[in-house]
Design a protein that fits this description.
2 copies of one chain form a homodimer.
Chain A: H1 2-15, H2 29-39, E1 48-55, H3 59-69, E2 72-78, H4 82-91, E3 96-97, H5 101-105, E4 110-116, H6 119-131, E5 135-139, H7 146-159, E6 163-166, H8 168-171, H9 174-184, E7 191-199, H10 214-217, H11 220-223, H12 225-236, E8 241-249, E9 262-269, E10 272-279, E11 293-298, E12 301-306, E13 320-324, E14 329-333, H13 341-351, H14 359-375
Parallel strand pairs in A: 1-2, 1-4, 2-3, 4-5, 5-6, 7-10
Antiparallel strand pairs in A: 7-11, 8-9, 9-10, 11-12, 12-13, 13-14
Helix pairs in contact in A: 1-3, 3-13, 6-7, 12-14
């Protein structure tokens, strides 16, 4: 899925030069800039050099794609698993295979390290990266314990490096980006609440053992739910938030006793409230990996995103946005919405700005899901 | 009491002869029979005579319609508000206006009393009705305090009368009835969780003062959320359940200080878990009163109901069902699904059966929302 998306993105990149209609975006601040950024081919003079350490999840390709789109150049990588490293080398022949992690950490030309290591290894790696004076972007979940979180916060403040967590269901989702623009423009009034539903396909038989061990991925709310926690904070504009209640369980996978296949949580923040449900029960009859939804309830309207599929309609693919406001109900196809994250993030690294992702918000989202895992009750029968 | 029972027996004997359509129940479960029953005009020999006490909410018309469809005949009514009574009399010229409540309670020909009084008055009335040997059907919410609930349970057990609560978003919703049939047939495996979203239009300026006073309607989760609590119990098959957490608040209506415009709750039962969100924020641009949704997540598939509107599509009206199972994703228009509740309920009253509504389940749904109101936290800023 992510690979497909990356392919589509590079296709769009080439074709946008033709898309003169994009000038229309000028009426609307942010978008116009994004179109410019998106048109830019990776320049021969890259804006920064970056490396990858840890490639246990395919999300790494989306991360690389975003940073490359922003003008970064992948120069080296390290993976301790020879089979994963071999596949990666084929896909990115321009990247040098480092002998070990240290070779990358000590390479002063490298400004940024990306990782999609096994989740429990991401935060310790990020701490080492920041201590070597580099910025860091982790796949989500970026942190799997509250102890790791405390250490990340401490070292991040000490080193003033970026500890980014790639919440791709916001940053790399055109519909979510558009929803953010609409909410910011006041299209639905003040946001009251978000509901995020995150079903995923389990693909048993094609997952590594760590996938089924909650200690290694942090639990289902930590793993999948971190996307929805991030979107809750972003859409409600909350800078403080607490978990009201949470539940996790293993409803239907007794063969994996350390797995969690269902979780939910309610959050309350200073900007609104939020509910998240995540699960591994996407049925085979769905044409994609998950029918992810986001509902944003405002005082003057609401938005629903059908992020990856619009079940049993003629509207194929994802990025379906529905908005109802005081005047009307509308459908908006968001597939052509520019994705600002990659370019913004690269600029943040180079210019020491903080546009792409709010550092506190990224870590607060992690805190919420980690607390949710800690206090979660177990549904009967799970 | 003895005399009443004997009268009822001879009455039942007479009325059952008329209901020949009921024989179809033997061939093909509920549905075939229901079609017959739904087609049937109110017979000249009604299956039972019923009355109405309390008409403060328009839901009373749906209640009357369901019982009439089942073969009941409305014979009398009482409302303490002369203006409401006058309108009602015009709409139901066949119904005698009683001088007072007592005239109806003491009318031995009346087997059933319906009420859509102000919510806080419904349970005390129901207790009086049961104590007079009659069955009772309340609009939802059927009970507004835990003390009322205890009394209802006690008197219901003592008198063995029916205390029905008309959860119309299940009983009178074709899509929900169809979803129930699908779930019962195993179409999505074992149910894991339900999510019910219940937005409503507030229609300020067209509501009576009691509408804005939580003591009188029981609070937003008690009022609106009782529908979703009922559906949670029904779809998960839970016979025991607890509230995990709940929130209520007045986010945007400071002019009504005793109002609640937002609420949510998480429940956990012995058959699954459930989440409910209710609010009074339906925006004017929606062509109906609320974009009510129900998601039923199963181990082998899921169902989504768009109960009253399918936003920004060509599918007009309500009763839209989407189901994804192991093989495919499908849309089902449920508008022609028969509604069994009315006929089943009348038969329950006449034959002392319990098909239309499970008595314990009806009261457990009330218990859940009342407990949720009691323990609810307040979102920041609400």
């Amino acid at each position: 899925m992510k690979g497909t998306r990356a392919d589509r993105r590079s296709f769009i990149k080439g074709s946008l030069i033709v898309a003169a209609g994009a000038v229309l975006h000028n009426a609307h601040g942010a978008s116009a800039a994004n179109v410019q950024e998106r048109r830019a081919e990776p320049s021969k003079e890259p804006r920064l050099l970056f490396s990858v350490i840890g490639i246990n999840h395919g999300h790494i390709h989306g991360q690389i794609s975003a940073v490359t789109r922003g003008g970064g150049r992948l120069v080296s990588f390290y993976a301790k698993e020879p089979d994963l490293a071999a596949d990666f080398a084929k896909r990115y022949p321009q990247a040098r295979a480092a002998r070990d992690e240290r070779e990358i950490l000590e390479d002063e030309s490298v400004r940024l390290v990306l990782s999609a290591a096994i989740p429990e290894e991401r935060a310790p790696l990020g701490v080492r990266v920041m201590r070597h004076g580099k910025d860091y972007m982790s796949d989500k979940p970026g942190i799997t314990t509250l102890e790791q979180l405390a250490e990340v916060r401490r070292v991040q403040k000490e080193t003033r490096r970026i500890y980014s967590i790639m919440y791709s269901e916001r940053f790399e989702s055109e519909a979510t980006v558009r929803a953010g623009e609409l909410v910011k423009a006041g299209a639905i009034g003040r946001v009251i609440q978000t509901v995020g539903l995150g079903p995923h396909r389990i693909n048993n038989g094609r997952r590594d053992p760590w996938f089924y061990d909650r200690r290694r991925f942090g639990g289902i709310i930590c793993d999948i739910g971190s996307h929805q926690a991030d979107q809750f904070l972003f859409f409600t504009g909350s800078t403080r938030a607490e978990v009201v209640a949470s539940q996790v369980g293993n409803v239907q996978h007794p063969q994996y006793p350390n797995f969690e296949d269902f979780g939910d949580m309610t959050m309350s923040g200073n900007g609104g409230t939020g509910y998240v449900r995540v699960d591994w029960f996407t049925p085979d009859g769905l044409p994609t990996w998950g029918d992810g939804r986001l509902f944003v309830l405002g005082t003057e309207g609401y938005i629903e995103l059908r992020k990856y599929v619009n079940v049993a309609t003629e509207l194929k693919g994802g990025n379906h946005l529905y908005i109802v406001d005081r005047k009307q109900a509308r459908y908006i196809d968001c597939n052509k919405v520019p994705l600002p994250f990659g370019p913004q993030f690269v600029r943040d690294v180079v210019e020491r700005s903080a546009v792409a992702q709010d550092q506190e918000q990224a870590l607060l989202a992690a805190e919420l899901v980690l607390k949710a895992q800690t206090i979660a009750t177990k549904p009967v029968g799970a």
